[in-house]
Amino acid sequence: MGVFGRAEKKRKVSKWVESAARSSIWGGHNADEIDSINTLGGVVSALALSFVLGLQYMVAPGTDEMQYADFRSMLCKSQEFRNYVIDVFKTEDIGKHREESFNFTKMIRLNTYMDIEQFLRTEVAHRYGEADGPQKHIACISDKDVETAVAFMAVEFPMEHLRAFVLQTGDFYRWSKVSESIGGMCAALIFASLLWSIMLNLSLALAPVREDSTGTALVAWLMIGGPTMMVNYLFLLVGLIAFFFTHGRMLVALSPFVGATMRNTVDISLFAILLPVFVIGLVLGIGATIWSARNSKEVAKEEASESTGAKAAGDADAVPIQIEDKLQKLPETREKEESIVDVKETRM
Fold it and tell me: What kind and span of H or E run contains 107?
């Protein structure tokens, strides 16, 4: 009966659900297992989201670290900006207690001096041009001479001129813009993963998967909810990878030694440690699942064959017992038949 007393019609189970129930992917699960898998994704998403939101505040273009990184990147990317920096230093007062202009000749080692103005006007363009492409750009900002020039200029350059240049001429390349874009994508994917986990938990709770003892309702739910959970975990995985890249870019923005930081963060942490460990863990996890499923099927087959053999042996043992019972009962049957015949004769 329904909620208002109406008789419910028996609905025929879809053939797709029946075939899915016989498969090894959707069949053989219970609601608690699926609920645990989905809840795990939601917990990880909620935990990662707190770190991602904090990282987004750090990669915002207005922070001192991002302004430092933007200044360094735009020196490598635009000759117009390099000339603009020279003009600003020649016209702006950078003195703290008296009027003072920037001195472009700096001592970088004992009895060794660097002409920063000449370096910006000719040498950077000669080495890297406009630093088109990510590889050339990373090579430029990792250049020890570029890092030396930035170390002297970034602390003295009035950053309002940097913002004014970007607003008027457009983005040649800003480190903060790319970092902000990757961080925003990371936050969107992980937040979407959290929302999907909540929706899937509600859907599983409202579906009659625990009331159905046959398991058909759970299989039907998994036909839609299963792929959705896979996509949800894909969102989480891509979001975590984007988080790692954003974190690495933030470390590069903070570091005055870009080459060493890129080596430690990208080459060692990402390619030498994180990716191999992730691939090994993924292969081991998949292998453990396949091995478990295979042995489970073999045990089930052995139990089925043992039960069939025991039943056959029991039937074979029962046949001689039945024959012996019949042979034992045969004299008694004959005596009863003879007594019945005697009674009939006496009556006659």
Answer: strand 105-109
Residue 210: burial class (beta carbons within 10 Å; 0-12, 13-18, 19+): middle
pLDDT tens string 157-185: 999 999 999 999 876 678 888 899 999 99
3-class DSSP state of 10:
coil
For the residues 310-339, what does the mean pLDDT come to?
53
Adjacent-strand bridge partners of 115: 105
Lowest mean pLDDT among 100-114, 203-217, 250-264, 290-304: 290-304
64-77 helix and 144-153 helix, angle to the nearest 10 degrees: 130
- Residue 313: both structure tokens together: 């042996």
CA distances from 216 to 13, 18, 286, 335 (A): 8, 8, 26, 61
Phi-psi region of 170 (alpha: psi -120 to 50; beta: other; left: phi over 0): left
Tokens of 317: 């043992």
Q: Do residues 222 and 20 touch, judged by C-beta distance below 8 A?
A: yes
Helices (H), the chain: 15-21, 31-58, 64-77, 79-91, 116-118, 124-128, 134-141, 144-153, 159-169, 175-206, 216-254, 258-262, 275-347
Q: Of 237, 227, 249, 144, which Cα lies nearest the Cα of 189?
A: 237
The model's pTM is 0.74
